[in-house]
Amino acid sequence: MPLVLGVALAGLAGWLLRWLPPQPRLDVYAVALAAIGAVYVGSALSEKRGRSIFLEAIVAIACIALALMGLWISPLALIGGYVLHGVWDFFHHPVPVGAQIPQRWYPPLCVGFDWAIAIAIFIQQIG
Fold first, then answer.
1. How far apart, in whole angstroms, are the C-alpha atoms of residue 119 and residue 116?
2. Which Pfam families does this entry report, sorted A to Z (predicted)?
């Protein structure tokens, strides 16, 4: 059920953002990717586990880099960022690789959201 809810929320976001011109729409998607890349960093910081903090920070930096490349080079980098973050979400459920996420519904919801947003970007910007 959380996976389906994530897809539905991404569908709503994509539908709302379709009213923006292409460049501002890409800007919103890029800022969102940078922000969601940092969500697990907060969880890792609350645990005060060095390995988790380092691992989550690397993923957050990668999301920021892909968001910038999506703006400066190609929207394909932005799509790749959402797909890769969805994979990272997947590895937080059911046994987390990095930070411990107390809400079991959160990682599957994010997988659905991230991958559906990647599809929305593809349809809106490339397809």
1. 5
2. DUF6010
| Residue 34 pLDDT | 95
pTM metric for this prediction: 0.89
Delimit the domains of the chain by residue range: 2-10+27-126
Q: What digits encode the pLDDT tens for the residues 54-110? A: 888 999 999 999 999 999 999 999 999 999 999 988 887 555 666 667 678 888 899
Spell 15-49 as b/e; 16+ CB within 10 A means b: eebeeeeeeebbeebbebbbebbebbbebbeeeee
Nearest to 10 by CA among 125, 126, 121, 127: 121
CA distance 14 to 113: 10
61 dihedral zone (left: phi>0; alpha: psi -120 to 50; beta): alpha
